Amino acid sequence: AERQAAMLFGIEQDNINRMAEGSEERVQAQADLDQRRAAADQQFADARAELSDLGECTWYIQDRDSITSYSSVESDSSSIEAIATVFPFIFFVVAVLISLTTATRMVEEERTLIGLYKALGYSRGRILSKYVNYSLWACLIGGVLGNIVGFVGLPLFLFTVFDDMYSLPQMLLSYDIVSSIVSVALFAVGVVGATIPRPAGGVGAPAFTACRHEMAETPASLMRPKAPRAGSRILLERIGFIWHRMGFSNKVAARNLFRYKKRALMTIFGIAGCTALVICALGIRDTSIALSPKQYGHITRYDLLAVANPDDFTQTCAALDERSAVKDSGVTVTSTLPITTDNVTFTFGGKSETVLLIVVPDDRVNDLDDYVRLEDESKESLSLRDGDVYLSKSSQLALGIQPGDTAHVQDSSLNAAKVKVSDISLNYLGNTLYMTQGTYERAFGRSARLNGVLALLKGSSADQIAFSKKIKSDGWLTISSTAEHQANADANFTIINSVVALVTFMAACLSFVVVFTLSNTNISERERELATIKVLGFRRGEVHHYVNKETLILTAIGAALGVPLGSLLAESFTYILQMPSLYFDVEVQPLSYVLAVVLSFVFTFIVNLTTNRTLNRIDMVGALKSAE
Predict the structure, then answer these.
(1) Strands (E), 437-522
(2) What is the rounded CA–CA span in Å between residue 609 and residue 553?
(3) Which residues of the chain have pLDDT under 70?
(4) Which alpha helices (DSSP H) does 526-589 contain, by range?
(5) Residue 322: predicted pLDDT
(6) Are strands 332-348 and 452-458 parallel, antiparallel or unpaired?
(7) How far apart are CA 471 and CA 320, in angstroms?
(8) Which residues contact 206 (CB under 8 A, 6 or more apart)?
(9) Tally of CB atoms within 10 A around 579
(10) How far apart are CA 578 and CA 87, in angstroms?
């Protein structure tokens, strides 16, 4: 403070020195500066004297992690980072499969052109280079656009949400060249690999490639149309009592599903992946909404936690009763539970967590359930007994500790103790350590002085928050209102809800792309077949039904597989989202499953309406004469 004051006085002195010599303005400014400088020097001298009279003091050194707002920003950033470790994998797999389908279809459509190239004497490598270059350039252009969206668009979206929640300095965009190169390279390997044929000996590249058959055929065979896929008996035909009761169109749909297995599997897998992503995103939202009621109301039953200096505890409790007696406060204290509380450092296995220690007097242990519900992971109630030490679930996940393990505990006065964890208690928001007065005194070797009170209040949430602010002037060191914590918790989950909305939108777009690409591939592969049934007299609606039925069946199968897949993926976030003071107990509402499945069918219906126009434009004569 002295250095800052000296710097400010120095700046003012420089400004005075620039004034005209001997002017009345300069004389008055110099006199004011000298007077303020003398007063500041006297204040600093009094402060130094006061500090010297304090004698021996205890210093508490905390880093910026102890600042609540900083921890909140770090927690929100960690949640986004954790989500980013799971979702990209499914997006990548589905996108690569669609890209492979497109590249494969491109090569198969140009088999006649490949035959012409071979007949003109072009080498195998020269022919392949055309498709390799095309696929590679598509990956590079898509990679550049994806990098712009990933490193600029999405961060700016998230930064906008952060700015609405916190007062932060300007955020700077960064570019990770390694991630950029790896992501583009993965797509290049997958998509470009689709155009690389298997060597003549049949050894080397994978069999799943687009050109392996075309390049092995002679130019004469390549210039002729590819023979339609041969039909075969399917398993359903062997189940007579079902097969004989099926209509003609249903039998055709069943045969076609088994006839084009690769397209069917890709559609099913793509729809399943997109459905799982939507379920997972909605599950995160459902969990975020449910965490606050689970914690505040079910686990945390007290309305107020007030902490005072142990020497002033009796007086501050009396002041609390007096405040409650005032009728116009809108709040009444119905009951209280005196406790010993402190923020302690809990260390196990080289990892540390800051937890809230609550020590209950031995004669009031039976009253604890009115203020805090202790329950184990199976939701069964726990009773705090002498010798018991209960640690919250979030701390267990962060530290890897198990019941029966011994950990090191250090309080704010640097008193250390070793405690044996008896059991794990559920606590969704916050880290808490519970023990009785006798357990504390045996562990720390000192008496447990009462310094806190848990209170049950009667009044609205707004009145309780206002009441907690009023009593701060009564000598309490810290006041914690449960109603205020609940309001803050709901606001802090805004960032997660924004990410959920973004992921849901991207999954929906991917689902649309999957169905649209594979539906168009299906129509282009079967153009002569569809032209034939139109010539045979199928009306426009019947042709639509003929094709769309297969897509709807594949969507139903994919959505059915996506439901359990999405449930497993959502459950994994309980262990992935291991953020400070948070136990992310995933809970997916039944409506979220229904909504994910409905979205899959909605996009399929939209795609069918689009592809119906393609079916209407099929030239029957041109398609049937294409072989000639």
Answers:
(1) 452-458, 476-481
(2) 16
(3) 53-76, 78-80, 82-83, 85-87, 161-166, 190, 193-215, 225-232, 326-329, 491-495, 576-580, 621-628
(4) 527-535, 540-571, 573-576
(5) 78
(6) antiparallel
(7) 7
(8) 193, 198
(9) 20
(10) 16
